[in-house]
Design a protein that fits this description.
Blueprint: H1 2-35, H2 39-55, H3 62-86, H4 91-110, H5 116-125, H6 137-152, H7 160-178, H8 180-193, H9 195-199, H10 205-227, H11 231-255
Helix pairs in contact: 1-6, 1-7, 1-8, 1-10, 2-3, 2-4, 2-7, 2-8, 3-4, 3-7, 4-5, 5-7, 6-7, 7-8, 8-10, 8-11, 10-11
Length: 256
């Protein structure tokens, strides 16, 4: 019993962080697949991570990191939106170059920092298992505002002028907490897991996507804690596995 209580106390804040990200990234992931711009999350998340690295030495605390990562992410989102309109046929290739460019710039920026490799690894893989509740307030506010917008204006994300800024802000809030890999997986895996259901017009497709996200999150967190492995990669693999199983089950159900 004491072990269960200890497990719950350790996983409370990381679970909250993951649920906050899933609340916004599931509907955003639907938009990403619909628009056919899968690399956008990697690109903007990488630019947001670059913004966090640029902030190092300019100030401490979550707010100083957030405003720089948000400014970088908004600039990246503006660039991606322009590329998508100017060269629609090459947009995925161009967005991929934005990601690689951001990654290369990040490597160059930290190359002279003795702790640069550690900082870069933390922004890529994350360490959600040890996140504190006091570092989640910006993410909670951003998620609440996004949820209110989506509830009051369900089709608002269909407009570029809403989608790209909202996407950039939420990604910039998520990357410092979860890491780039987990943010990308939370965006894409649940949406892919229910893609067949959505194509078939199933009314509970979004609910199933949230369920995929929650199951993958809790499986990864629990396994990471019990096996003493890095939490970010563990959740990434759990989300992918859960989405793959869900997609296979959906295919069987739709054929039946």
């Amino acid at each position: 019993m004491d072990g269960v209580v200890e497990l719950g106390s350790v996983l409370a804040a990381p679970s909250l962080a993951g649920l906050l990200v899933l609340a916004s990234h599931v509907p955003l992931g639907e938009q990403v697949l619909r628009r056919g711009i899968v690399f956008i999350d990697l690109a903007i998340a990488q630019i947001a991570a670059l913004g966090v690295l640029l902030t190092a030495g300019w100030g401490n605390g979550p707010f100083s990191a957030w405003w720089m990562s948000t400014a970088a992410a908004l600039a990246g989102a503006g660039l991606v939106a322009w590329l998508a309109r100017a060269w629609p046929e090459q947009r995925e290739a161009l967005i991929g170059l934005v990601y690689v460019g951001g990654a290369a710039a990040a490597v160059l920026w930290v190359s002279s920092d003795p702790h640069g490799a550690q900082k870069l690894r933390a922004l890529l893989a994350g360490d959600i298992l040890w996140v504190g509740a006091d570092s989640l307030w910006l993410l909670a506010v951003g998620t609440a505002l996004f949820t209110a917008l989506a509830f009051r204006h369900p089709t608002a994300l269909n407009r570029d002028i809403v989608f790209y800024p909202a996407f950039a802000i939420l990604v910039s809030l998520s990357v410092p907490v979860l890491g780039l890999y987990l943010v990308f997986t939370a965006l894409i895996a649940p949406a892919l897991g229910v893609h067949r259901l959505r194509q078939a017009g199933h009314p509970r497709a979004r609910g199933a996507a949230y369920l995929i996200g929650v199951i993958g999150l809790l499986m990864g967190l629990t396994g990471s804690y019990l096996l003493d492995t890095p939490s970010g990669p563990a959740i990434v693999l759990a989300l992918i596995a859960t989405a793959a199983v869900s997609s296979a089950l959906a295919a069987v159900r739709l054929r039946g």
